[in-house]
């Protein structure tokens, strides 16, 4: 007598394998999405830190060039005055103004879009292939009287990107003081 699988047993095995396969594929898809989100989160963190470094370089360049420390970071010395802009830094030579600054109105402004320059291996707003990232600076001048401190500019850097139809924003803030020693 020959023994084998019945049609019902074969159908059950195929169904079980199919359900398992669909589950594994769904899990794989979700893991790939999470990898993409984590990668972009890591890039955004770097763009935020770079943004604060750009603002610090602008302030240092202003002080070393004997212009007002808030130049290009805010609009005036009126308490609460604000400037919204995008920027990147092309050099660390403080003898030459080397910051590329563009006034923008929102974080999704085309001038806020970050590009990747594969020849220089860096992110900037001037040349390269557009990325999914946008960076916006908001510089707000404070005269310091309310806090009992020296005048300062509070620079807030926002990085925005979309991933799988969902928008993500990260923010980093730093205060830059008028004094030569602090930022």
Topology:
Blueprint: H1 7-64, E1 82-89, E2 99-103, E3 113-117, E4 122-124, E5 129-142, E6 152-163, E7 166-177
Antiparallel strand pairs: 1-2, 1-5, 3-4, 3-5, 5-6, 6-7
Q: Count of helical segments? A: 1
Helix content: 25-40%
Label the structural class: alpha+beta
**In angstroms, what separates the terminal alpha carbons?**
89 Å
Largest pleated sheet: 7 strands, antiparallel
- Report mean pLDDT, rounded to a whole number: 85
Structure description:
This protein has 183 residues and is of the alpha+beta class. The protein has one domain. The chain is built from one helix and seven strands; from the N terminus they run H-E-E-E-E-E-E-E. Strands 1, 2, 3, 4, 5, 6 and 7 form a seven-stranded antiparallel sheet that branches. The chain is elongated and about 100 Å long.
Give keywords:
7 strands, 32% helix, 183 residues, 7-stranded antiparallel beta sheet
Please provide a brief summary of the model:
The chain has 183 residues and is α+β, with helices and mostly antiparallel strands. It has one helix spanning 7-64; strands spanning 82-89, 99-103, 113-117, 122-124, 129-142, 152-163, 166-177. The protein has one domain (7-177).
